[in-house]
Protein 1
Amino acid sequence: MISQPSVDVRFIDREDYRLAIHITENREGCGDLILLHGAGVASEATWYPLLSAFQSYRRVICPDLRGMGRSHALDFEDCAISASIVADDVDAILDEFSVKQCQMVGYSFGGLIALMVNALSPGVVDDLVLLEPALLERSSLEELRDLRSRYATAASSLLVEDDPVIGVTQFLDLISPNRSTHPRVERMTVQRLASRPKGLAYALMAVNEAAWHIDRMELIDRSPRTLSLVGSKSIDDAHALHQILAASREDWFYQSVPGVDHALPYQKPGVCADLICAHFGR
């Protein structure tokens, strides 16, 4: 049995914000792996179940993105963010830990941030895996923007309702319409997303803003060798876009992950880890 690696949590300060970074180290390993989680969740819940598969790396670096996990403002109040600020945070973390070249994995919101970090620091990310990346869930930009405006409605509910379950459920109905609604599964999913409701809300609002101001095709064109993973239960249009990208680019690969929806790293962490390692040649 492969043992679970020990994780050290470190903090770096950026102006009025403190970022938590979860790190595993193996002196006998080689290379750096950066893991970026999705909106409303955190590195511990998302990536710890996969870490045993990544022990060939010298370092695995998992930031808690702004508004999530153990990262917090110095006054502990969650506030509005932008995707650009979060990408700048990650870029600063790479600089802080002297990461000159790495492989990177981004899930959902973290997938968008991974593409943006790659554009900020060309050549640093030499290989990429995207798990259901934000802004790449619809082929039509008009339909994407309409969808994202509905996410903003869910975000508003998270900010004004006393019960975060209302806004979280609205969000899940949009992002995982074909998910399992078994009471135990639904309860676990809601609990995972409701831990920082304002952080989730502000991340959703940041992606909605990005849908109008970021050129996603430029991010795609600048991306390195990339594998995109999409849950088989996700909507057909998401699969169609990633199939088009794989067919039109020699260095873009697409895989449908059987039996899962948007929550694929939680539902099948072992399968995701195997596909990531295979793409990275680990």
Protein 2
Amino acid sequence: MSYNGSGTFNINTTGQPVVAGTVITATAFNLLTADLATGLTTAITKDGQTATTARIPFAQGINSTLVTDATNTTSGSIITAGGVGIAKALYVGTTANVTGVATFSAQPIFSSLTASSAVATDASKGLVSVTNTGTGNNVLATAPTIASANLTTALTIASASGTVGQVLTSGGAGAAPTWSTVGATPGGSTTQLQYNNAGAFGGISGVTTDGTRMTASTTIGVGGATPSTSGAGITFPATQSASSNANTLDDYEEGTWTPIDGSGASLSFTSTEATYTKIGRFAFFEFQVVYPSTASGADTRVNGFPFNNVDNYEGKPGVCIVSGFTSGFIQQKQGQGGGYIVTASGSNVTNSQASTRTVRCAQYYTTT
């Protein structure tokens, strides 16, 4: 009968138990030895001669006195040609070597994870390395996209072309970058401002800085104006580029102009001298002319002002002196480039009153 299916070994009952003083029959003896043979054959031999034909349940687990680490599939305390199913937690006291693929049905939790080489982590897969303390290469896929890269130390590109001092220059969307040479040291002196001089740094000789303020020893052009080649100052464009900002100076101009007779008497002035200066919207002018001998009774009028007056009244304060006759001012009209010579009492001076006299005038007014 041997084992009863529950692990209990039963002796065959035929001819058993043996009674003292009786003859043991061959049948009873043979049945006994056959049962013993079956039982021993079914048992697991300690030297590994037999293999089990069914799973063996171990109620108290398995203890092994073997202390050699497993280094492959044929070493260690437990060797199996099939898989290992573990219903509870697995504890590995030292190193777990996995030569194949480890598949996790749920997100694993790694504590005290230290990479032996640089790794790329993915929080959505449950693999998060707060601090990557490893060294080595982090191999990226072909044409990777690196978003919001933050490199706090040097980035080394292995086997990259280019030479010392060159930089990578973008080739545009979809194009490969190229190596470009940048001057190893700035051009010019220490304090000069730098500019791109055909791919190398160059120093602007007339502009220096102490790191806070800028100093220009030459001219500076604004509004697209070509800087003057003489002196030092700010060059404005020939045509004003007006700004709507109240704190922006958008025009400056100075020069000479030619006073002409606007009375209708076709007079020709002599010894003329006339200059002007325009700062923003204000124009300042002065002139000196000598009237010819004339008996014309028309009111004096001098035209040719460098800019038209835009005031909705008769100009800004000024002064006019008619030598040996009177003093007064220039009376302008809105939108006109000239004005009448008026006495201090408000009377117009006629051409005959100014005949052969020197007239000197100065005034400022508002322009566009």
